[in-house]
Structures are given as structure tokens and as C-alpha cells.
Design goal:
Distance between the termini of chain A: 36 Å
Helix content of chain B: 25-40%
CATH superfamily of chain B: Aldolase class I
CATH superfamily of the largest domain in chain A: Nucleotide-binding domain of ferredoxin-NADP reductase (FNR) module
CATH architecture of the largest domain in chain A: 3-Layer(aba) Sandwich
Order of helices and strands of chain A: EEEEEHEEHEHEEHEHEEEEH
Strand order of the largest sheet of chain B: 1-2-5-6-7-8-13-14
Structural class of chain A: alpha/beta
Number of domains of chain A: 2
Number of strands of chain A: 15
Order of helices and strands of chain B: EHEEEHEHEHHEHEEEEEHEHEH
Bound molecules: flavin-adenine dinucleotide, flavin mononucleotide, FE2/S2 (inorganic) cluster
Number of helices of chain A: 6
Shape of chain B: globular
Oligomer: heterotetramer
Number of domains of chain B: 1
Strand content of chain A: 25-35%
Largest sheet of chain A: 7 strands, mixed
CATH topology of chain B: TIM Barrel
CATH topology of the largest domain in chain A: Rossmann fold
Number of strands of chain B: 14
CATH class of chain B: Alpha Beta
Chain lengths: 251, 294, 294, 251
């Protein structure tokens, strides 16, 4: 069965923060929170993005492809392949911890009513994404690196204040160093398998064939075996040490 | 369906655990993923093609599933010499290092980096990398020279051919003359798709190569042709997805096979096929290799 | 999906009723079956390839459905000159007479029999007929000479190419130099299958050609390549089975298309596709021909 | 979906008459009476044959391929593709008329209890096929050209003796001249559309693609649109006048 990109038309562009925009399009995709798609920016590149709703992606501008995406407006077209990957599989009492643009897949989890407590982190107040909506659907705690809003410091600071062992599932997405801080704490308490970490690796095929996204030490594919892995699977290996760039070189 | 026995001897110079290798470029960029595929039942693995310098590859989309297969234009992304460290932990395992270059000398350079390789596979066949792969692999003289130079590193040399030539037998013979220990047939078939809604080619590189079930009859035909033309073993590749497909390739003339795109449907494809293919009471594979030649 | 208008002018010298012709060798042996396909919505029809002498064709099995397509080795069965009488009742209809021969002279002889043909299509591409088709169609000089000789009969000459060559552009250019009015791309891809239970090739002729969906990405790629290489119209052929496929071929560079294997699924394929493809408010096809070239 | 030949092993060979054998094999095919298969005799050819049961074909030796088939014995293998074609679609009171080996598809119709009256014809007594079994499941009338059994003459002789108009469906298979005699009689009575004639034309693909089996004047494909046609579809055109050989030449 063919899985050619589905061509969608952008209907609305929402400016979330100075560096984050949500692109709403005209077709719905049935996804599980944590699953992602490959977004084809015609003439530029194809890059992985979590769904931020059945008909949207929420994008942080970080380089060439995202910059090109930022130049698009309502009426412009994108190609979407997906959904791909496993997504989160929360059970029991759920804690979500999102940092930066990593909030996106967790936002959809919270929006579907599956998150009890949400810890949201950003560098500074104006870079907080989805905070208002998250406050409506979860017990939201906010941390900013510069203290411009909520807790002054990292999300791990808030984590240290709460009883993490009382949660059955801890869903995490954000910069790898942030995730590392969280994993360390779970390992210390012996509950790393309750942690579900959404990983970011360089993706080319997104269907588990090319090997671009494979992680040491098990050789698991982030696109197909992930992007969500339990803490026990990633605590050894490359996590927080290195990853591979587009050529496969370690970076 | 008949069943066969596991190999009792080396095949084309490599001590394979069964007759099925992971094809080049499929989960072949890291040592860990290659190791995983061995653990999941591959009889041997071929690495991603490694070249003289690190390449990030073509812009995306780089791979798209289509009816009956995949089209890809990865653009030979590879970490070059860094790959030596990647596969160091696999020393002693049946790891065939796929290499490429723009000239015979470059092939030689890359080969010199891998004294631990179980064998080299020369990618003279990738259809979407300008100056590399098929763009030089259609020339019999170049194929022979690349083979000769890599042969000086005293390892089995497998030469992987493109089906995108008028007569694959001529290229196969050139490899044999150059001293190849085996022919691998085939790499992907030149192909492309267009998004009619966007009115542009869907692959970032415009064109690429077709793999998967769609090309199986093309691959069988290539192996059958080559079996009549060369005396060295042939490794069949292209669209294999079942034990019966493996037998069919062997009957066409393949001593072993490589499997790539079938990973798309199942990462366990090797053990799934092995469960159907092998039996202790099976017949030796040698009995059926080439038996369909009438 | 966009929709297009019916053609308002001749395409490659033939007044087609729509952009889709019945491909050569599909229900093309009798005047009545060609007439039926016109009635069922084909915009034009190409006859079975007619040669200098009547041929019964290869022993069976001559055609086998496989995953995603058909493999066939009919062996160019044809009634030769008797075919003149077959299609006499079709005078004035958009009937393209496909012809073949072993030499340019034979092409000329066969062409001389059909003063009523709307155009000639030269089969320089059948992959399973020794001494005919692709076995001569891989040689640019022969392709040019065949084209030149048939051109002397003052009709549009379409030259049908094989994808089984290292560089299809060279052959396309040779046809153009010979005066061809259009290139038809492509004929079937060399292929075979083996019955593992019988341990022998399944086609009576051992090898044959693959057609149908499996080869669509290969055909699109061939048309795209040719569009850059020649200035004459291209007729796309290979694996087309939907209106979207027709548009895709046009965007690759085809001015019209031929459809064969899709008949396997439905004899009404032309009218089914036309229902999706055409609209009075559609855009002229010319606007999209080649538009995917970036 | 692949339709590679199904490989069957011959289990029994039954000598029906000096020139007719039934080959029973080890696999069952779900067919409707009148449907046929392509029989691959390895190394020789592939030829069309009606099913004479879900696991058998009944073959008259007429040329190279059937002769090669006759040399096969239990344990030998054949390839079978099919079932193909439309088969008979009888309704109401049914008359079947079979001549020579043409009895085969009608035999399966009678065996499934769908035939009221059966007229069976052969050149001579020892060439009658399935007569005993047919007598059990239908009102059987027999004609032999040489009068060695039953009516002395052609099946049409018997037909002239019965009230053909009392039948709703008349299923026919046999030599084309025999079928012509029957069709003429139906046309004369204005009931040719009640006649269902199983046609024989040169077949190569059997799947409606190659055109080898097409009949004038409608260009219908015997393999796919047939092999069974109602009398009105064949009364004009090539029927009983000519057919095409393997090259497409009229014969
Ligand atoms: C599963 C998954 C979900 C993601 N979800 C989101 C999301 O919801 N919102 C969001 O803004 N970003 C998301 N990303 C990250 C996003 O893919 C990158 O920011 C984007 O690819 C950057 O492309 P660029 O060309 O603008 O940057 P570049 O200038 O090319 O590179 C900047 C960095 O982006 C990353 N990157 C570039 N290309 C790729 C690629 N093909 N695959 C993976 N990473 C790449 C690399 O880390 C690179 O160092 C997600 C990534 C993954 C793997
Ligand atoms: C739908 C259908 C059902 C049939 N059912 C039976 C059956 O149940 N029993 C039976 O004995 N015969 C049956 N036949 C006829 C049978 O196919 C031919 O007798 C057989 O093909 C002869 O092959 P040969 O090589 O022995 O003869 P040849 O020497 O090749 O030719 C003898 C004659 O057989 C016919 N023939 C040969 N090859 C083919 C072919 N590929 N397609 C059609 N006709 C061919 C031609 O009329 C030819 O003139 C059926 C035919 C059709 C079309
Ligand atoms: C994503 C992808 C990457 C590939 N990379 C390479 C490569 O680096 N070197 C090579 O020789 N072949 C490469 N190939 C070709 C395969 O090794 C194989 O020859 C081809 O896919 C046909 O086999 P399959 O149908 O089993 O996939 C690649 C194929 C795919 C799909
Ligand atoms: C049964 C069959 C017979 C064919 N005969 C001819 C032929 O006589 N001459 C020719 O040029 N091409 C012939 N072809 C090739 C088709 O015309 C066409 O090029 C090919 O099948 C690809 O198109 P498709 O995928 O739409 O079938 C034949 C193909 C088939 C399947
Ligand atoms: S991106 Fe190709 S395997 Fe994950
Ligand atoms: S036998 Fe090919 S169309 Fe009937």
C-alpha cells in the first residue's frame, strides 16, 4: 500500500511565541499522542514533527527547514506522511514533563485528559507554549530558567519538590539534558521503567528502514521502535552522551 | 514447500550463519543496529556504503513507500572513516563492509580502513549518487579496476551490480575478471514518483531507486542471467520477503540472498523466514542453487 | 485532484478522443476487440505488434499475474499481413499500428501494408523476442534507421522504447534524429519468475517482461528523463491504473498515455479513469505536461 | 495479488475412453460448472481445460500438449491457474447438450443437480464419456454418429424429437458445428437467448488481457467474458464460420 505524502493546505498560522508557530491544515490525521509525522516543505526538506492536534503541528524555528516553514502562510501546501512511531502509553496516575518545544506531544496527551500533573519548562516567560490550555486540563506547574514566570530554574527543580513515586507513568519530552536530569532521578528511585521519554534523533525515512535514527546500545530505531522509550531502555548507551548527525557521524 | 539446511561452509568467503544477509543501507549506519539485526536472525550483515568522505545525503523526502515497494534517494549518507570505530565491536562477526568511491583509487583507500571486514561489497550500483555507484558501475573496465584494487586487501570481494544496464552479464563478467569472489544482484531500479497535488517530484533528489516486492521478478531475472555468465557465487537481492522467495532466488542461481525493504513490514523478517526455510532434515542449499536452469 | 479537458487538437499527429490509448498487445489482435476498446472509452488504440511473418508465439505459460503486475512472454504472436484485413473496418478511427521487424527493411515492408494507419508505433522494445524488439532497440543507430525508413510512408511515427538500457535518453534521441513524431515509453521490464515447486521458470519462454503497477515508478522516471532529452511529444506507458497516474505521467512529460495491464482488473478502465480525469471546466492538459520538472 | 500457478500432484489417472483420461489431483478448486483452468504441463505448454470436478480435469488427446499430458502418471505434477471465466448460469428447467469432450463442463453442472434432461453425443459407443454417472443425475438421452448406442445420428436429431421450448435454459458444449445446429434451432424458435454456449477459442493468458481468444463481431473475450455466451451474442459474427489460431490468423 502506497504511503505517498498526503498534501495538506495550511488554513491558519498561529504565532505561539516569537520562535514558535502552529500550522493548522485542512486534513485530520488519526494519531496517538507522541506519534509524529514527516513534514515535507516542498523544495526544501522533510522533517519530523509531533502532531499538536489532529490537524496541526507546532514548530520551533531552529534551522533551514523550520525557517522555510515559518515563511509559509494560509493557502500554502505541505506534504504529511504519518502518523509514525509508538506514542505514549500512559496508565494510572500520570505526570508529564515538557521542556521547550518538547511540550507538543505532551500537550496532546494532556488535551485528551490523560495527564494529572504537568510540569512545563521554558527558558523565559515568553517562550512558554500551551500554558493556558494546559492549566485547564491538568495540574500545571511552570518553571522558567530565568525566573520570569513560576519556579525559577529547571523542571527538575519542581520534580524534586513533588512525590514522583506517587505517579505510575512519567511522560517526558524536551532537550536531552533535561530528560537526562529526570531519568537520573527516576533511576535513583528505581522507577526508571515508569518513565516514558520521547527521543529526538535525525530522521530520514521515518519507517524504520534507513537506520539514520538508530540509538546505541541496542540499535533501536527512534522512528519505529520509538520515539517513546521507557527509561530502562535508554539509561545505558548514547543517551545524553552523543547522537548522530545526518551522515551518521557522532555529534 | 521444501526446506533447506543451514550452511555448513563459508559462502563466497564469509562464514554466514544462514543464507540471508541484511542488505546494504538498511539499518546499516551504526554498529549497534547491525548487531541488533544479527541478533534478530540475519545470517550476516552488509553495512551502509562507506565512502571516502562523510556525506549528509540528499534533502528529504529521501524514502517513500509506494505500491509494492519503496523508492529512496538517500544519497549515500555515511560517516566515512568514523565508521571504523562504529563496527569495531563487531570484529569476528559476519559483517560485510560496503564501500564506494568515485575512482578505483578511492575504493582502495576506503578498503584500507577496514582490516577487520569479513568481506567487502563494492557499491557500483546506487542509482542516485552522481559520480558514484551506478554512474561508474555501468562501465565494465571501471568495475574490473575497482575489483582488482580492493582485491589487493586480501579479503573476499563482492561486487554489487545495478539492474539499470543493457546487459548485466557484461558487468558481472568484468567483476569476475577483476577477481571478485561473488556478485551481488541487484541494487535498486531507477525510478521516481511525482506528487500530482504539488506538481513536483516527491523525492528531494527528484529521482531514486525502487526496491521491494515490485522488483523481485527483475532481480530473479538478473540472477538467472548472471548464473549463466559467471562462475563465481551470486548473492541475490531485490524484493525478497518470504522463504519461498529465498528458494526462488537460489533456484535462479543465488548461493545466498540479501534482504532490505522487507524490514519495512517486519524487523523480524529474518527469523520469520528462517522458521519456514530451515529444517534439520532439509536438503543442502547447494542442491537447489541454479536448479531452475533448463 | 485536478481535472483536465479533452484534447482539442491532434496529439503526436493522431486525432485522439482522449489522452489514453490502449497499449500494444493488449486485446489488440483483432479488429473487433480494438473496436470494442474504442467503444469502451479508449481515446485511441495501438494494435498488437505486426511483423513480417505470422508467428504463433511462445509456448505457455505466456502470461502470469504476479505481485503488483503481470509477467508475459507472448513472443510477438501476430497474423502478419492478414492483419490488414482485420483492421480494414476501422479505417478513419484512431488506430495506431504497432509494427516490428528484424531489420530496418522489414520495418519498411510491414509499414507498406498499412496505408490506412493513423500512425505507426515501432516496437523496438519487446524484451522477449530474439532478433526483434529490444534486442535491436538497444542500438541507437538501428533505432534511427528503422524510424527513417518508416517515416518514408508519410505517417506519424511513434517509437516505443525499452527501459532495459543503460541510458534511455540516447535511444530517445536516436529516434528523434530519425524523424520520430513521438516517443512511447516504456515497454515491459525484463523479468521472470520461477515455480519453486516445479523448480523451473514459470514462463514457457523462461524470461519475459514485467508490466503493471510494479513498473509505474520506473516508467515515470523514463518519461521524466526523456522529457529533458527530446523535443518531440512523449506517450507515457507502464503501470497506469488511475486518473492520478495519468496526471503524474503528464507532469513527468507525457502528452498522452497508453494503458495495458490495468485491463486485467477492469475492461472498463478507460471510462472509469475518464470519469475522474475529465471535466468541462478542466485545465488544458498542455498546462501540466512536464510541469514537475524543477 | 499473485496468481502464480498452483502446483498439484496427480493422484489418479482414470481411462475414460481410448482417447479420454481423467487426471485427479491433490488439491481442490472452488469452481462453478463451466469455469475452466489453465493446465501447465511443465516443459510443454499451458492449455485450457474445464474442471470435471473440484480436483480433476478430463482430457481428450488431440495434439502435442494433450499427448504429453497423457504420458503423465500418479505422482507427476501440473500447474493449475484458475478457475477462470463465467461458467453457466442456469435457471428453471434445464436441458444440457454435450458432444464429445464437450460433455465435461456439463457433467459438473449435472453432478450438482442442475440439469433436468441431458443429451449426450459421441462418434461411437466407446467414446461416450460420463454416460453412467449422467444417467443417475438426469434424464439422459444418448446419440452416437454411428448408431452403436442410443439414437443413430447427431444430438440435434434428439433435440428435434423433444419440446425444446419447454426448457428455460439450454446449456451446450461441443464441436462448433454441433453447437451451430443447436443454435439454428433455438433461433428458429426465437429462444436463442435461453441457449448458453460454452465456446472454445485459442487461449494464452486466460485473464482477458492478451486478446488471443477474442471473437467477432463484438470483440468479446472467451476467457473472461465467456467461455459461456448466450445464443444472441454469438448468432452473428464468426461463430461456426471461422476462428483464429495462435498467431491470430483466421482458420
Ligand atoms: C519525533 C520528533 C518529533 C519532533 N517534534 C517536533 C515538534 O513538534 N516541534 C518542533 O518544532 N520540532 C520537533 N522536532 C524537531 C524537529 O524535527 C527539528 O527541529 C527540525 O528537523 C529542524 O530542522 P531544520 O532544518 O530547521 O534545522 P537544521 O538546521 O537542519 O538542524 C537543526 C537541528 O534540527 C535537527 N534536525 C534537522 N533535521 C532533522 C531531521 N530530519 N530529523 C530529526 N532532527 C532533525 C537536528 O538536531 C539539527 O541539529 C521533532 C523531532 C523528532 C525526532
Ligand atoms: C474453455 C475451454 C475448456 C476446455 N475444456 C476441455 C476439457 O475439459 N477437456 C479437453 O480435453 N479439452 C478441453 N478444451 C480443449 C483443449 O484446450 C484443447 O484440446 C487443447 O488445448 C489441445 O492442445 P494440444 O497441444 O494437445 O493440441 P494442439 O496440437 O496444439 O492443437 C489441437 C487443437 O487444440 C486447440 N488448442 C491448442 N492449444 C490451445 C489453447 N492454448 N487454447 C485453446 N485451444 C487450444 C486448437 O483448437 C487446436 O487446433 C477446452 C478448451 C477451452 C477453450
Ligand atoms: C533506504 C535504502 C538505502 C540503501 N542504501 C544502499 C547502500 O548504501 N548501498 C547499496 O549498495 N545499496 C543500498 N540500497 C539497496 C539495497 O541494499 C538493495 O539492493 C535494494 O533495496 C533491493 O533489495 P530489497 O528489495 O530487499 O530492498 C539501499 C536501499 C534502501 C531501500
Ligand atoms: C500481454 C501483453 C502483450 C504485449 N504485447 C506487446 C506488443 O505486441 N508490442 C508492444 O510494443 N508492447 C507489448 N506489450 C507491452 C505493453 O504495450 C506495455 O508497454 C506494457 O505492458 C506496460 O504498460 P502497462 O503496465 O500499462 O501494461 C505487451 C504487454 C502485455 C502485458
Ligand atoms: S529514520 Fe530511517 S530508520 Fe528511523
Ligand atoms: S486468452 Fe488472453 S484475452 Fe483471452
Amino acid at each position: 500500500m502506497s504511503e505517498m505524502p498526503e498534501i495538506v493546505t495550511i488554513t491558519t498560522v498561529v504565532n505561539e511565541t516569537p520562535t514558535v508557530k502552529t500550522f493548522v491544515f485542512d486534513k485530520l490525521f488519526a494519531f496517538r499522542p507522541g506519534q509524529f509525522c514527516m513534514v515535507w516543505i516542498p523544495g526544501v526538506d522533510e522533517i519530523p514533527m509531533a502532531f499538536s492536534a489532529a490537524n496541526s503541528i507546532t514548530v520551533m524555528k531552529v534551522g533551514d527547514a523550520t525557517e522555510a516553514l515559518f515563511s509559509l502562510k494560509a493557502g500554502d501546501k505541505l506534504g504529511i506522511r504519518g502518523p509514525f512511531g509508538n506514542g505514549f502509553s500512559p496508565s494510572g496516575k500520570v505526570l508529564a514533563i515538557g521542556g521547550g518545544i518538547g511540550v507538543t506531544p505532551l500537550f496532546t496527551l494532556a488535551a485528551s485528559g490523560e495527564v494529572d500533573t504537568f510540569i512545563l519548562g521554558a527558558r523565559t516567560r515568553e517562550e512558554l507554549v500551551f500554558a493556558d490550555d494546559l492549566a485547564k486540563v491538568s495540574d500545571l506547574k511552570i518553571a522558567t530558567d530565568d525566573g520570569t514566570f513560576g519556579f525559577h530554574g529547571f523542571v527538575t527543580g519542581i520534580l524534586d519538590q513533588i512525590d514522583v513515586v506517587s505517579y505510575d507513568t512519567i511522560c517526558v519530552c524536551g532537550p536531552e539534558m533535561m530528560m537526562k536530569g529526570i531519568l537520573d532521578r527516576l533511576v535513583a528511585k528505581g522507577i526508571e521503567s515508569r518513565g516514558q521519554f520521547s527521543m529526538h534523533r535525525y530522521m530520514k525515512c521515518a519507517v524504520g528502514v534507513c537506520g539514520s535514527c538508530c540509538m546505541d546500545e541496542h540499535g533501536l530505531r527512534v522512528c519505529k521502535d520509538g520515539p517513546v522509550f521507557t527509561g530502562d531502555l535508554i539509561k545505558t548507551g548514547e543517551f545524553a552522551h552523543y547522537h548522530r548527525g545526518p551522515s551518521g557521524r557522532k555529534e | 514447500m521444501i526446506q533447506i539446511k543451514l550452511p555448513e561452509e563459508e559462502i563466497a568467503g564469509v562464514p554466514l550463519r544462514n543464507h540471508m544477509l541484511l542488505a546494504a543501507g538498511i539499518l546499516g549506519t551504526t554498529g549497534a543496529s547491525l548487531k541488533r539485526m544479527l541478533n534478530l536472525g540475519a545470517g550476516g550483515v552488509v553495512t551502509k556504503s562507506i565512502g571516502p568522505k562523510a556525506i549528509p545525503g540528499h534533502h528529504g523526502p529521501a524514502l517513500i513507500p509506494v505500491d509494492g515497494g519503496l523508492i529512496n534517494a538517500m544519497g549515500l549518507p555515511n560517516p566515512s572513516k568514523d565508521f571504523v570505530e562504529e563496527i569495531a565491536p563487531l570484529k569476528g562477526e559476519p559483517v560485510v563492509v560496503s564501500i564506494f568511491g568515485g575512482t578505483p583509487e578511492e575504493f582502495g583507500t576506503v578498503a584500507s580502513w577496514f582490516p577487520d571486514a569479513a568481506a567487502f561489497e563494492l557499491n557500483l550500483s546506487c542509482p542516485h549518487a552522481e559520480g558514484y555507484g551506478a554512474s561508474i558501475g555501468v562501465n565494465p573496465r571501471v568495475v574490473r579496476e575497482c575489483t582488482e584494487i580492493v582485491k589487493t586487501y586480501n579479503k573476499p570481494v563482492w561486487v554489487k551490480l545495478t539492474p539499470n544496464v543493457t546487459d548485466i552479464k557484461i558487468i558481472g563478467k568484468a567483476a569476475e575478471e577483476g577477481g571478485a569472489d561473488a556478485i551481488v544482484a541487484v541494487n535498486t531500479v531507477k525510478a521516481m514518483r511525482i506528487s500530482t497535488e504539488l506538481r513536483r517530484p516527491v523525492l528531494g533528489n527528484v529521482f531514486g531507486g525502487l526496491s521491494g516486492k515490485a522488483i523481485f521478478p527483475i532481480a530473479v531475472r538478473s540472477v538467472y542471467d548472471l548464473y549463466d555468465a559467471v562462475d563465481i557465487p551470486i548473492i541475490g537481492c531485490g524484493g525478497i520477503s518470504s522463504a519461498d522467495n529465498v528458494l526462488e532466488m537460489m533456484m535462479a542461481g543465488a548461493s545466498a540472498v540479501e534482504i532490505g525493504s522487507a524490514i519495512y513490514d517486519s524487523v523480524n523478517v529474518f527469523s520469520e523466514i528462517a522458521a519456514d526455510l530451515y529444517s534439520e532434515d532439509g536438503i543442502p542449499a547447494e542442491e537447489i542453487v541454479g536448479c531452475a536452469h533448463v
